[in-house]
Amino acid sequence: MLFGLVLLGIIFAAGVIKIVTGKVEDARLDKLEAQVTQENGSFIGAPPFEVNLLDVNEYSRPGIPLKKIKGIVVHYTANPGSTAAENRNYFEGLKDSHETKVSSHFVIGIEGEIVQCIPSSEIAYASNSRNDDTLSIECCHKDETGEFTEATYDSLVKLVGWLCYRFGLESSDVIRHYDVTEKICPKYFVDHPDAWEQFKKDVDGQILVVAEEVKAADSKTE
C-alpha cells in the first residue's frame, strides 16, 4: 500500500511538472511572438501584418536557414474564398496530417490582411528549386479567375516593395511561381502578363515610397 501511495505521488508530481513546464514554454513563445510583432511594427515602410509563426516541423516549417535572399516569389492559393488565417492554419495542420509539404512566408487575405507564417531567415516549402534563396507570398482570391481584390493587390504591392527595399532587391527579382516551374500560379498574372508587368511597375514605385519614408525618418533622428 505504501508503495502504491509513493507511486501515485511520483505520477502526480510528474504531471504537475509537465503542466508547469508547458505553461512556461507557452509563455516563452507568446513573449517571443509579441516581441517579433512589436519589432515588425517598427519597420519603416512596412505594411501592418500579423506574426503567427508555424510550429517548427518537417512538413511546413523545417527551420532550415535561408542564407541569402535573391528574390521574392508571388503565388495564389488556388482555394477561392479562403482567408489568410485559414491558409495559415492549413500549413500548421500539416505537422499532424502529413498530407504534403507546403508553406509560405506570408499569406495575404481578400481583405488585405497579411499574416507572416515563417521568419524571413528560414526557408518555406513554396517555390521548388528556389526555396533556398527566395521569400514566398501566397495571395487569397475570390474566384476561379485568381484575380486579386484591390485590397489584396494593394497589400501585395506594399509588402513586396518593403521587402525589396529591406533586402536590396529590385522588381526584376520578383517572380511568379510560374517562372520557376511553369505551374499556372498565380493564375491571373500568368493569364494576363500585362497585369504582371504593371504590378512590377507598381512595386518599383513602392520601393521609392519606402526609401523616402526611411530618409524622412533618418532626418528626424539627426
In a few lines, what is going on in this structure?
With 222 residues, the chain is α/β, with parallel strands linked by helices.
Describe the structure.
- The chain is α/β, with parallel strands linked by helices and about 220 residues long.
- The protein contains 6 helices and 6 strands, in the order H-E-E-H-E-E-E-H-E-H-H-H.
- The radius of gyration is 21 Å and the shape is globular.
- It starts with a helix and ends with a helix.
Provide the gyration radius in Å. Answer: 21 Å
Strand content: 5-15%
> How helix-rich are the residues, as a percent range?
40-55%
The beta-strand count equals: 6
Q: Quick check: average pLDDT?
A: 87
Alpha-beta classification: alpha/beta
Q: Count the helices. How many?
A: 6
* Biggest β-sheet description: 6 strands, mixed
**Which regions have little confidence, pLDDT < 50, spanning 5+ residues?**
2-8, 10-14, 16-21, 25-41
Q: What topology, given as strand order, has the largest sheet?
A: 1-4-3-5-2-6
Question: N- to C-terminal separation?
Answer: 76 Å
Overall 3D shape: globular
Tell me the series of helices and strands, N- to C-terminal.
Answer: HEEHEEEHEHHH
Write out key terms for the chains shown.
6 helices, 222 residues, disordered N terminus, alpha/beta, NAMLAA_amidase_2, globular
Strands, helices and their partners?
Layout: H1 2-41, E1 50-51, E2 71-76, H2 84-97, E3 106-108, E4 114-116, E5 134-139, H3 150-167, E6 174-176, H4 178-181, H5 187-191, H6 193-221
Parallel strand pairs: 1-4, 2-5, 2-6, 3-5
Antiparallel strand pairs: 3-4
Helix pairs in contact: 3-6
